[in-house]
Amino acid sequence: MAPKPPETSQAVSGRRRREATVADIVEATKRLLAAGTPVAKLSIERIVVEAGIARATFYLHFRDKHALIAQLAEDEIAWREQIGAEILADPAIQRGDLDRMMRDIVSRWAADRPVLDAIIELAEYDPIVRETWRAAMHAVAVKAASQFRIRWESTPGGPADPDAIAEIFTWM
Prior knowledge:
Elements: H1 9-34, H2 44-51, H3 55-61, H4 65-82, H5 85-89, H6 95-111, H7 113-123, H8 127-152, H9 162-171
């Protein structure tokens, strides 16, 4: 297989511009949600005005506001792949390390509450957002269950069903 040719400076510039535009749209949406705008009143018009972009530009990146909220759901889960990855990989993990990691997670969720509220609200009636959120939460639970198994495999009388415990903790 031949090596992939390097990107041209125009391609790099275009990719960066597209990424910046998506980031502007996402941040504008987060600001509107943080200001108390309910999902039902979160119109494309309000988002594009807040982001300082044209309506057509929005549609180059997102099909509709549901697709945007689905993106927010994916972003909400993605950061947790990094948080605590080193801590959880350490077989000699200490309670203090776990406590700090959990505090970091709770702080992040608290800061992102308006976005989470929007995701949960939209997931109630949008099957795509619901499935995106459910799949993301399940992936987190699977990762947690594997960590629970590692921790409990040498513990006599450890919990019998780490998968169920992980699902419960994840959804809490």
